[in-house]
Amino acid sequence: MGSKAGATPEAGPRRTRRALLFGGLGVFTVAAIAGHDELRRAWWLLPGAGRPRKEGEVDHVGAEWTSASPANWRMADRPGDYRVDRIVVHVTQGSFASSVDAFRSPFHQASAHYIVGQDGRIEQMVREMDVAFHSGNRSMNERSVGIEHEGFVDRPQDFTQALYAASARLAADVCRRYGIPVDRSHVLAHSEVRGTDHTDPGPHWDWDRYLGLVRSELAATPA
Ligand SMILES: [Zn+2]
């Protein structure tokens, strides 16, 4: 946002946002969409009012950042333009490094928000406000956060304790921030997404263990 000579520093951006808000949609429309409590921060409901992005910024504390190729995701303004109410669980079918490389490639045509390693490290590659191409289903992509896990579906030993623990902390963080219920309708397998032919995370992914860990994390760090 550019600064104008003579404008006071704190008044400028606020006035601009309010003018856009009231001028673009009307206060009643915005109030109806957002509710009074959210009116204060409803400026992101406006088309094109993208929030600032800073290279290297992450949504989950502890994640590292590597940018996926812009060809593999779509800029959005979630949860303003799309409600986020699903987590899709994936398995990479390759190493951590090869998955990071794949998402960085403009020819891969897919990405996920996060990759969790067998050692528990987490790489974020697409911001949660944006739509990653991870599930093969447009509307599911628009409403979900995609989490990849380093390993192969037919190798149960790949799903280490460190991987489960790190992913559960991440999933709990996502569930808390968007109010997503921790159950199998809202935290689902890629193989359960309509229209996909992918089989991940496969029969060795321990859902009871995973959701149990997510619930424990949530209980330990309430909203
Ligand atoms: Zn997948």
Automatic annotation (TrEMBL):
<dbReference type="InterPro" id="IPR051206">
    <property type="entry name" value="NAMLAA_amidase_2"/>
</dbReference>
<dbReference type="GO" id="GO:0008745">
    <property type="term" value="F:N-acetylmuramoyl-L-alanine amidase activity"/>
</dbReference>
<dbReference type="InterPro" id="IPR036505">
    <property type="entry name" value="Amidase/PGRP_sf"/>
</dbReference>
<feature type="domain" description="N-acetylmuramoyl-L-alanine amidase">
    <location>
        <begin position="73"/>
        <end position="202"/>
    </location>
</feature>
<dbReference type="Pfam" id="PF01510">
    <property type="entry name" value="Amidase_2"/>
</dbReference>
<dbReference type="GO" id="GO:0009254">
    <property type="term" value="P:peptidoglycan turnover"/>
</dbReference>
<dbReference type="InterPro" id="IPR002502">
    <property type="entry name" value="Amidase_domain"/>
</dbReference>
<keyword id="KW-0378">Hydrolase</keyword>
<dbReference type="GO" id="GO:0071555">
    <property type="term" value="P:cell wall organization"/>
</dbReference>
<dbReference type="GO" id="GO:0009253">
    <property type="term" value="P:peptidoglycan catabolic process"/>
</dbReference>
<protein>
    <recommendedName>
        <fullName>N-acetylmuramoyl-L-alanine amidase</fullName>
        <ecNumber>3.5.1.28</ecNumber>
    </recommendedName>
</protein>
<keyword id="KW-0961">Cell wall biogenesis/degradation</keyword>
